[in-house]
Design goal:
The complex is a heterodimer of chains A (about 425) and B (about 180). With about 425 residues, chain A is an all-alpha fold. Chain A is built from 24 helices and no strands. In chain A, helix 6 packs across helix 18. Chain A is elongated. Chain B is an alpha+beta fold. Chain B has one domain: Roll (Ubiquitin Conjugating Enzyme). Chain B is about 35% helix and about 15% strand. A four-stranded antiparallel sheet of chain B has the order 1-2-3-4. In chain B, a hairpin with a 2-residue loop joins strand 1 and strand 2. The longest helix of chain B has 21 residues. The N and C termini of chain B lie far apart (about 50 Å). Classes of the chains: A mainly alpha (about 425), B alpha+beta (about 180). Chains A and B meet through helix 22 and helix 23 of A and helix 1 and helix 3 of B. Chain B: Keywords: ATP-binding, Nucleotide-binding, Transferase, Ubl conjugation pathway. Chain B: InterPro entries: Ub_conjugating_enzyme (IPR050113), UBC (IPR000608), UBQ-conjugating_AS (IPR023313), UBQ-conjugating_enzyme/RWD (IPR016135). Chain B: One of its GO terms (molecular function) is ATP binding. Chain B: Pfam families: UQ_con. Chain B: This is Ubiquitin-conjugating enzyme.
């Protein structure tokens, strides 16, 4: 896996475009299969949460998760919008092995659920879900040959996107996976064989990790997963073992993705292509990230630190949570609030008292910046000065600028006059 | 001016907005002025600026007496000047009246002690305070504005610093002895 991602390091995250290609290919079945896979997971997870006794905790985590989700969505949206190349173009010269690699990387996040029947029995109510979701779930719980057949069905004549669910379930079965990989990517089998083998090795290493056991045995494994996800979301994962750290963080990613798709399932009547495109966007960028993380992890061992230089940007950061855009509460037209910090009086530290009358500044006063120089004063003093002098005490410039703007906003007639002029 | 018109339309929060009729006759809250002056006194006493000092004269906090020492390196070095500061009731929106009580031979100070300083007139800003006023006057002593003199003789004499110093010392001694006698 690590060796695989390195050769294409210079490229833009390859899998999003490829997956998008899969999504926009117009093959309805392929799209459905892709959506169904994610939806199945979403249902899987959601049901697990519903049945878990730690429901309150989960809802709290859901909030936390939602905030992170928003931040990441923004991030990815900006990335995707920045990349103007149409998906079809990418697919024409792109490697077919990319989607496979990408999918398998995502798959790491679903080790226990995919292979253990106990987990699915706990989530038996998933059958309530949409038909194709349960279908894919059935495949995922079925034997290797079963899913193999499914993959053939879905991928027959369609793009690899259709094989995604199957790949997903195979990550703990290296032999079958390699078989499937050859099927899935016959065009570049020769070129991508070596990296894939490396990836398999990584998989096998992962397969024996200690966390899998308890996860698969527990009925409420999902709830635990949620906690792990929350840990990964909130702070740096304190676990000592590198592999478990990877698992929990991956778990968080997958939970996010899964839940997102679950949300989209609710509005399922909408076009599946949009969902698909959105999902690919959501899921795909994690691919190189996960690879890189694994690569790094192999050497270092240990959870990512906040200040780690190699820390992937997709991981949650505490600063992000703390720096959610807080819109300053403006009562008047202090539209230069942002630029003031560099001016002489500064906006960062609003004085506790009015420099003119030494009265304490209340909330309204502190958010009141009547002059671009950033000089703050209380509304009373500002009113006095505006009546008399009309110049800012801080810079001796007339307050006219503010007044004009305020006036034009308030009085439509003068606004019209201004338009004429 | 259009500014005066629209000023009355906005900022409805001020309590004075309703009661006020014109620009004059401002019912100033003397308490807030006293509060501001007290805080200025506190900051002035804690700042410990060398060469300037001020304190209210008697019980009236609106009348202060200040002292300024001539800056080192100027012809006014070693000379102490007494000033009076009278604060209007709409201070700090209006500048205080500052005069030299000690007669001062200076291009920008007339025979009555009136000071020609822009920040005490049109360049006044509500952020100025006693400390900044006194520091400004102190620096004015060493750097007069000879283009708009109140004391033409001093302004004419200023380029010749040696002679200026002689005249200044003489005048100061005269006023000192005169002040003692009176």
């Amino acid at each position: 896996m690590a060796g695989f991602i390195l050769p294409e390091g210079g490229q833009e995250p390859p899998s999003p475009s490829d997956l998008q290609h899969a999504g926009s290919n117009g093959k309805a079945n392929g799209n459905h299969a892709l959506v169904s896979a994610v939806d199945a997971q979403a249902n899987h997870l959601k049901v697990g949460v519903k049945e878990s006794p730690k429901r309150k905790k989960a809802s709290k985590m859901a909030k936390l998760k939602q905030s992170k989700l928003d931040a990441r969505r923004e991030q990815w949206l900006s990335q995707v919008s920045g990349r103007k190349s149409p998906p079809s173009q990418v697919s024409s010269n792109g490697d077919v092995s990319h989607p496979c690699a990408g999918e398998t990387t995502i798959d790491e996040s679903f080790p226990a659920e995919s292979t253990t029947p106990s987990n699915t029995s706990g989530n038996g109510t998933a059958s309530k879900a949409v038909s194709f979701c349960t279908e894919s779930k059935g495949h995922s719980n079925g034997s290797g040959s079963d899913s193999n057949g499914h993959s053939k069905d879905s991928s027959n004549g369609y793009h690899h996107g259709g094989e995604k669910p199957v790949l997903r379930r195979w990550q703990t079965q290296p032999a079958l996976r390699s078989l499937h990989d050859e099927e899935a990517a016959p065009k570049d089998a020769a070129t991508s064989q070596a990296p894939q083998q490396k990836a398999q090795k990584a998989k096998m290493k992962k397969g024996v990790r200690p966390q899998e056991g308890p996860e698969s045995n527990e009925g409420g494994g999902d709830a635990d997963d949620w906690e792990a996800a929350a840990e990964a979301l909130g702070v740096v994962v304190p676990e000592s073992g590198s592999e478990t750290g990877v698992a929990s963080e991956n778990g968080s990613h997958s939970h996010l993705a899964g839940d997102e798709s679950g949300v989209s399932t609710a509005s399922e009547g909408a076009s599946p292509r949009t969902q698909n495109g959105y999902l690919t966007r959501r899921l795909a960028p994690e691919v190189p990230d996960a690879c890189a993380r694994h690569h790094h992890r192999a050497g270092a061992g240990g959870a990512w630190r906040q200040d780690d230089s190699h820390r992937p940007g997709t991981l949650p950061r505490l600063e992000k949570f703390n720096s959610f855009p807080v819109v300053p509460h403006n009562h008047t037209g202090s539209m230069w609030e942002a630029t003031i910090s560099r001016t002489m009086w500064g906006s960062s530290a609003a004085p506790a008292t009015c420099p003119i009358c030494t009265e304490e500044l209340d909330l309204t006063d502190t958010s009141f910046v009547p002059c671009p120089c950033g000089f703050r004063l209380c509304l009373f003093c500002h009113h006095r000065i505006a009546l008399d002098d009309g110049r800012c005490p801080g810079c001796r410039q007339a307050y006219v600028k503010v007044e004009k703007v305020e006036k034009y906003i308030q009085v439509p007639r003068s606004h019209l006059v201004r338009l004429k002029v | 001016m259009a500014q005066a018109n629209h000023v009355q339309t906005d900022i409805p929060r001020s309590p004075n907005a309703k009661s006020r009729v014109g620009m004059e006759a401002k019912p100033v809250d003397s308490h807030s002025v006293a509060r501001r002056l007290q805080s200025e006194l506190m900051s002035l006493m804690t700042s410990g600026d060398a060469g300037i000092s001020a304190f209210p004269e008697g019980d009236n906090i609106f009348n202060w007496v200040g002292t300024i020492k001539g800056s080192v390196g100027t012809v006014y070095e070693g000379l102490n000047y007494k000033l009076s500061l009278k604060f209007p009731t709409d201070y700090p929106f209006k500048a205080p009246m500052v005069r030299f009580e000690t007669p001062c031979f200076h291009p920008n100070v007339d025979q009555y002690g009136n000071i020609c300083l822009d920040i005490l007139k049109d360049k006044w800003s509500a952020v100025y305070n006693v400390r900044t006023i006194l520091l400004s006057i102190q620096s004015l002593l060493g750097e007069p504005n000879n283009d708009s003199p109140l004391n033409g003789y001093a302004a004419a004499l200023w380029p010749n610093q040696e002679e200026y110093k002689v005249v200044l010392q003489k005048k100061f001694r005269e006023t000192e002895s005169g002040g003692v006698s009176s």
